Amino acid sequence: MAVYTEIADDEIDRFVSGYDIGAVLSFKGIAEGVENSNYLVVTETGPHILTLYEKRVDPRDLPFFIGLMEHLSARGLTCPQPVRNRAGEALGTLAGKPAAIVTFLKGMWIRRPRVEHCAAVGTALADLHLAGEGFALTRRNALSVEGWRPLFERSVERGDSVLLGLVDAIREELDFLERAWPSGLPKGVIHADLFPDNVFFLKNQLSGLIDFYFACNDFLAYDAAICLNAWCFEADGALNVTKARALLGGYQRVRPFTDEELAALPILARGSALRFLLTRLYDWLNVPPGALVAPKDPLEYWRKLRFHQSVADIRAYGIGE
Amino acid sequence: MAVYTEIADDEIDRFVSGYDIGAVLSFKGIAEGVENSNYLVVTETGPHILTLYEKRVDPRDLPFFIGLMEHLSARGLTCPQPVRNRAGEALGTLAGKPAAIVTFLKGMWIRRPRVEHCAAVGTALADLHLAGEGFALTRRNALSVEGWRPLFERSVERGDSVLLGLVDAIREELDFLERAWPSGLPKGVIHADLFPDNVFFLKNQLSGLIDFYFACNDFLAYDAAICLNAWCFEADGALNVTKARALLGGYQRVRPFTDEELAALPILARGSALRFLLTRLYDWLNVPPGALVAPKDPLEYWRKLRFHQSVADIRAYGIGE
């Protein structure tokens, strides 16, 4: 939960007056999101979400994110739609920071996903991958295999304070992944962060996807591996094979994996686990003073990585039998 | 900003299904408030605020708070109105904690109050004092003069780490206030925490008051002194006499102060400044690990206290000439 920037009432009034959405009736910070500040702005025409892009987001990436939401929306995917102001711009400046207003998406995120939610998110991920086709802009995935070692180096010194032997184990995994990382798999626009808090449900039906601020171009199957890690493990650290089968099966109903993608899944899952282990480890070791967000447990992803290391083939994920 | 309790989607669905307000369409934590967790719950019938009472609130006080909001609402004061569930109860249990749903109040709080806002809040405070008449329940003010010394004792040891000499200066002020604190002033229900973030405005008209969780029975003029401190000082620490005159004048248009109240104002202002100095000092020295709220600067109230100590009579507040 994080709202980093305090916005004055007259600032928000002035900002919103540039849009055709009526006057502001209410304005509240939302205790969600980590990278940006989000506010619920109720205007005479209804609720909207205002996002202020904080310093962890590169402003040069914003046209990609905003354009992607418009592209996906136009292709029928339900996601927040950027609202353009009277000058035709979807990006403005508020309190000295880049800011955008997007439409309000009904629904709630599921705190304890069940099998049917996993199936729905698999389907939605494949829908997203198909809807992303033809999007003109591209964005490199800075958090894929080439990005991991530099990230790792920043946690080497104190990494073993979290778990003795962790630094050596990560180095070994990095050596392996850099050698074995696949190439030539189908690529496209991926969400890259489709955790439960970014998927809304309404009466148990998936009602939309949010938060495209990690989206980039990468292997489509890598996105599925991220979801597998984020949705299909139980609180005790074990993979729920029924959920994995539901998620990957839901995906395949819309976009069947190629044989190469299926063969690569275990290593993509390892890579995805390492990626979140590394960012969480860094955040854990570098909690800023006055932080408004409790850092997430990096060892959750260490346990997931260990699981995937033990996987012989994709039957461990409930598919390919 | 603080949301202390994570609520699962099925828990909120179940809780709201006990009310006649339709199904939940959206559910978001609000990054406001310090004592309780607040959520915006949009249902089929519109937006509502759900409050979860965290451990700093004594559950035995909840009937007073809830009843007061109902009493004030019935008397025409605009404030959140508790929604009763189908069993007729305004208080329920959610995630193991007391919880209430109240109506959503339109408006925004003013980050940089101007003179006209101060006038409006003075009037609203007097309205509140009149509307509170006849409320059957009572609640002692644990943060009035008898409560200050025990609170002070808990900060004695490390108080001077905030400002050298602070502990002795507070002790001296306490000695003085305990001797000189008035008696016999008109009493009633006071808000006791009417800071700018608890007063909503819509198009520069005051649209309502929120957060009655410090309300209690005490001197009515003490409430005005709290507002004076909260609304009428500039960022540089100086009292804005024009704002003070507007606030106290706005109050007097609805409920004129008695001569005794006017004479007591400087000492009530000192007491109010000491009260917030003491609570902020304690919070400053006791930030819990993983705190989601940055503690507020206690020295802001030290500077206000010093100002009031220098006041000869109420002309310093722009009235009584």
Automatic annotation (TrEMBL), chains A, B:
Protein name, as recorded: Homoserine kinase
Top-level taxonomic group: Bacteria
Organism: Kaistia soli DSM 19436
Protein's UniProt keywords contain Kinase: yes
GO biological process: threonine biosynthetic process
Family: Belongs to the pseudomonas-type ThrB family.
Catalyzed reactions: L-homoserine + ATP = O-phospho-L-homoserine + ADP + H(+)
Gene Ontology MF term list: ATP binding; homoserine kinase activity
Ranges for domain Aminoglycoside phosphotransferase: 27-257
InterPro entries registered for this protein in UniProt: Aminoglycoside_PTrfase, Homoserine_kinase_II, Kinase-like_dom_sf, Pseudomonas-type_ThrB
EC number: 2.7.1.39
HAMAP family xref list: Homoser_kinase_2 (MF_00301)
Keyword terms, alphabetized: Amino-acid biosynthesis, ATP-binding, Kinase, Nucleotide-binding, Threonine biosynthesis, Transferase
Metabolic or biological pathway: Amino-acid biosynthesis; L-threonine biosynthesis; L-threonine from L-aspartate: step 4/5
NCBIfam families reported in the protein's UniProt record: PRK05231.1, thrB_alt
